[in-house]
């Protein structure tokens, strides 16, 4: 599928992160992040070579014990990006109109912090990541794209930094997004955003 234009992609993706993470019985994650970390630089120095487009099928984040299948997300009827379904076997979801992990640009993967009555979501400890931690995406073509965390930010959804998250970059980058903070109605007040840069690839 052809990626959306940058402006359309940013608008739709922003709508996605403003929805709730988890059902009405979801509880708050104990993970806490910092909102003071600056966004990563867009310089291409020392970055690994970009990959061809190939759908991600698995995501591993050893530092927080994540090893999850990745499903493809599209657009909901209202034009916002879908979020992963609320199920007992929670999985992360890649937004299919964004670059695939390893392509030039920001590849976006969403995950829940909680999944209603099922308890914790796959990204429940996302805010505990630190600069230098490793994230690996396995692609449909068998390639592995390894990323290094450059920043972790917790922001109010009302002040979501769309330009930092979805703006043009000249190298392959990754964005992991979940909810955080106190519950407000059916959702959460904040978002945790992990910024990471491609550091290596392997067959």
Automatic annotation (TrEMBL):
Q: Which InterPro entries match?
A: Sortase (IPR005754), Sortase_dom-sf (IPR023365), Sortase_F (IPR042001), TAT_signal (IPR006311)
Give the signal peptide range. 1-26
The UniProt keyword set, sorted, is: Hydrolase, Signal
Coiled-coil regions listed:
none
- The annotated regions of Low complexity compositional bias extend over 26-48
Pfam families assigned to the protein according to its UniProt record, in alphabetical order? Sortase (PF04203)
Top-rank taxon, per record: Bacteria
Q: Which GO terms describe its molecular function?
A: hydrolase activity
> Region (Disordered): which ranges?
26-52
Protein name according to UniProt: Class F sortase
User: What is the source species?
Assistant: Streptomyces colonosanans
């Amino acid at each position: 599928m052809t990626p959306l234009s940058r402006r359309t992609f940013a608008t739709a993706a922003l709508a996605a992160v403003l929805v709730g993470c988890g059902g009405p019985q979801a509880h708050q994650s104990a993970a806490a992040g910092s909102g003071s970390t600056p966004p990563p630089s867009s310089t291409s120095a020392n970055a690994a070579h970009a990959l061809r487009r190939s759908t991600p099928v698995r995501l591993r984040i050893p530092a927080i014990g994540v090893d999850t299948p990745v499903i493809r997300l599209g657009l909901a009827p209202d034009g916002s990006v879908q979020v992963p379904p609320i199920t007992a076997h929670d999985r992360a979801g890649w937004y299919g109109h964004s670059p695939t992990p390893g392509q030039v640009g920001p590849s976006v993967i969403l995950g829940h912090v909680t999944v209603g009555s099922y308890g914790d979501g796959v990204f429940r400890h996302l805010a505990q990541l630190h600069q230098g931690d490793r994230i690996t995406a396995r692609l449909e073509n068998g390639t592995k794209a390894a990323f290094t965390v450059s920043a972790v930010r917790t922001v109010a959804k009302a002040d979501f930094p769309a330009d930092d998250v979805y703006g043009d970059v000249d190298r392959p980058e990754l964005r992991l997004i979940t909810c955080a903070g106190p519950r407000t109605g059916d959702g959460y007040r904040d978002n945790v955003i992990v910024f990471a840069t491609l550091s290596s690839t392997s067959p």
